[in-house]
Specification:
Oligomer: single chain
Strand order of the largest sheet: 7-6-16-17-18-15-19
Structural class: alpha/beta
Largest sheet: 7 strands, mixed
Helix content: 25-40%
CATH architecture of the largest domain: 3-Layer(bba) Sandwich
CATH topology of the largest domain: FAD/NAD(P)-binding domain
Strand content: 15-25%
Radius of gyration: 23 Å
Shape: globular
Bound molecules: flavin-adenine dinucleotide
Number of strands: 22
CATH class of the largest domain: Alpha Beta
Length: 466
C-alpha cells in the first residue's frame, strides 16, 4: 500500500518533530502547513541584523528524553552548546541566584524571611496544617510551601503570568508548573539543581532546533509550506480536505490523516461538519494567556553578565528580562545588544495594543524600578506578539476541556497534540516527545488510538522546567 498522506498543521516543535520522524521512518508522505514565514512557533527565532532573537527566554533542558537529545545533538552538531545557567530572581528587593542556591539564599535574604519560611514548614507539619480540601493553585502551594514563600514569590508571579488571583487558578497549575511544588523538592533543588544548572542552546537562536528538524524532514521528502494559514477542515470519506490560504491564494489538500498542533479551540471551530453547540460553547470557555515580547536595543556590546532576570514584583509589568547574546556566550555584534522583556497580557487588552515605542519606554521605566538602569539611552524598541503563550488553568477549566478534547479525539483520522493542541503547559522537549509518540502510533494506514491513550497518561506526568 502507498504511504498515507499526513498533513501536519503548525510548524512549532511538535509539527516539525513529527515531520522529521515520519519521513525518517518512511511512514507517511508529509505536508506541513505553517502560517508564519518562519518555523519554531513560540520556540522559534528571528534575525535582526546579525543577531538571532527568541520569543522570550528559551533553553533546552537536560530533562529532555535521551532519544530526543541525541537527535538534536546529531542535527545541530557543534552548533549546540551546553551552557551554565546564569539567572537571578529579585526577591524582596534583593537579587538571588536562579536556579536557587542554598548559600546564596542564606547570604542574600534577610533573617526574618528565612525564619518565617522555616516556621511555615513546622506549622504545615502540625495536625491541622495543609490544604483543607480545596484544590486551587493557592491552596496547593500554601499547603506545601507555607505562606511566606507563596506571598513573596509564587503568588505575585502567578498574578502577572496568568492574570488571575492564585485562588482562581486550579491546583493542577501548581502541580504542572511548579517543579519544586513541595518544600522537600524545593530544598532538593536548592542543594542540587536539576541539570546541575546547565542547559543546551544553539548558536543561531533556540529556533535553530526547529529549523534543523524541518531541514532534515525536507531532505527526506517532506513538503514544508511556510506562510500558509489553515482556514478549514472538511471531513471526507477517506480522511480530510484541508483548506489553506496564502495572500490571495487558496489551496485544498487531501489528507489521509490530519495532525494538528493548532490551539484545540481553533481547530474545533474550523471543522466541517461543525461540532455540536455544547462543544463549541466549551471551546469558548477555555483561553490562553498571550505574551508581548519587547526588544530594547542598546548601543553597547553587553548589558549584563546575567542571562535572565526574573521579577515576581507587581510594580513592573515584565516577568523576565533576558539578554539573548548571553545564551550562547556571543560577543558579536560588537557595540550592540538587544534585551528581551516578557510581558504577559491578553489579546486585545491595553498592553497588547500599545505601540512598540510606548512599550519600549515602559520597559526602560520598569528597568529603572528594579535598579537595572540602562547605562545609555536605547536606540530602538520593537515588539512581537504571541497570541497563545500559556494555557490558563482556571478552576473548573476541565469541565470544558474534557468534553472538547474527547470530541476531538473521536474525529476519525484526526489528531490534536502539542502544547496548544492538548492545552498543556509544556516545554519544547515535551512537544517533541508528543511528536515522536504520535509517529510510533502510526502503523501503515492505522493510527493506534489505544497506544496514544497510554502516551497521553505519560504526557500528564510532564512537569514544566523554568
Ligand atoms: C515565553 C516562553 C518561554 C518559554 N521558554 C521555554 C524554555 O526555556 N524551554 C522550553 O523547552 N520551552 C519553553 N517554552 C515552551 C515552548 O515554546 C513550547 O513548549 C513549544 O513552542 C511548543 O511547541 P508546539 O509545536 O506544541 O506549539 P507552538 O510552538 O505554539 O506551535 C504551534 C504552531 O502552529 C502555528 N499555527 C497556529 N495557527 C495556525 C493556522 N491557522 N495555520 C497554520 N499554522 C498555525 C503557529 O504559528 C505555531 O507555529 C516557552 C514558551 C514561552 C511562551
Amino acid at each position: 500500500m502507498d504511504q498515507p498522506h499526513v498533513v501536519i498543521l503548525g510548524g512549532g516543535p511538535a509539527g516539525v518533530g513529527a515531520a522529521y520522524k515520519l519521513r525518517k521512518e518512511g511512514k507517511a508522505r508529509v505536508t506541513l502547513l505553517e502560517r508564519n514565514p518562519y518555523l519554531g512557533g513560540n520556540a522559534g527565532s528571528f534575525q535582526e541584523g546579525e543577531q538571532w532573537l527568541d520569543f522570550g527566554s528559551h533553553r533546552l533542558h537536560h530533562a529532555s528524553e535521551p532519544e530526543i537529545l541525541a537527535d538534536i545533538q546529531m542535527l545541530l552538531g557543534p552548533d549546540l552548546k551546553d551552557r551554565p545557567r546564569n539567572g537571578r530572581i529579585r526577591l524582596r528587593g534583593k537579587w538571588v541566584k536562579f536556579p536557587l542556591s542554598g548559600p546564596d539564599l542564606m547570604l542574600r535574604l534577610d533573617k526574618n524571611f528565612a525564619l518565617n519560611a522555616a516556621k511555615d514548614m513546622v506549622l504545615k507539619n502540625l495536625p491541622g496544617g495543609g490544604a483543607g480540601g480545596e484544590d486551587t493553585f493557592a491552596s496547593v502551594l500554601r499547603a506545601n510551601l507555607g505562606p511566606t514563600i507563596c506571598e513573596h514569590f509564587y503568588f505575585p508571579y502567578a498574578r502577572k503570568l496568568w492574570g488571575h488571583e492564585p485562588h482562581e487558578l486550579s491546583g493542577i497549575q501548581a502541580r504542572r508548573r511548579v517543579s519544586s511544588g513541595t518544600f522537600a523538592k524545593l530544598i532538593k533543588k536548592v542543594i542540587k539543581p536539576p541539570g546541575k544548572g546547565f542547559f543546551y542552546y544553539p548558536r543561531e537562536g533556540f529556533g535553530q532546533i526547529s529549523r534543523a528538524y524541518a531541514d532534515h524532514a525536507t531532505k527526506d521528502g517532506a513538503e514544508i509550506m511556510l506562510g500558509w494559514s489553515v482556514a478549514g477542515l472538511k471531513k471526507t470519506e477517506a480522511g480530510w480536505t484541508v483548506e489553506t490560504t496564502k495572500d490571495a491564494e487558496t489551496r485544498r489538500l487531501d489528507a489521509d490523516f490530519v495532525w494538528s498542533t493548532l490551539p484545540l479551540t481553533v481547530a474545533a471551530r474550523m471543522m466541517d461538519p461543525a461540532p455540536p453547540a455544547d462543544i463549541l460553547a466549551a471551546a469558548g470557555r477555555i483561553d490562553y494567556r498571550a505574551m508581548l515580547l519587547v526588544y530594547v536595543e542598546l548601543p553597547i556590546t553587553q548589558f549584563h553578565a546575567t542571562d535572565a532576570h526574573y521579577f515576581p514584583e507587581e510594580n513592573v509589568a515584565m516577568t523576565r528580562l533576558s539578554e539573548p547574546k548571553n545564551y550562547f556566550g556571543l560577543s558579536a555584534p560588537e557595540g550592540r545588544t538587544v534585551l528581551c522583556a516578557e510581558i504577559p497580557c491578553m489579546v486585545g487588552d491595553r498592553l497588547w495594543t500599545m505601540s512598540d515605542e510606548d512599550l519600549g519606554k515602559m520597559v526602560v521605566e520598569d528597568m529603572r524600578k528594579v535598579d537595572l538602569v540602562p547605562p545609555v539611552a536605547h536606540t530602538r524598541a520593537f515588539a512581537r506578539r504571541l497570541p497563545q503563550a500559556y494555557p490558563i488553568y482556571l478552576n473548573g477549566y476541565q469541565d470544558h476541556l474534557v468534553p472538547l478534547d474527547r470530541w476531538l479525539a473521536e474525529q476519525p483520522r484526526f489528531l490534536s497534540y502539542g502544547r496548544q493542541g492538548l492545552f498543556a503547559h509544556d516545554n519544547t522537549h515535551h512537544a517533541l516527545y508528543m511528536a515522536y509518540a504520535a509517529t510510533r502510533c502510526l502503523d501503515g494506514d492505522r493510527f493506534d488510538t489505544a497506544e496514544w491513550s497510554r502516551y497521553r497518561k505519560i504526557f500528564e506526568t510532564h512537569v514544566v522546567e523554568d
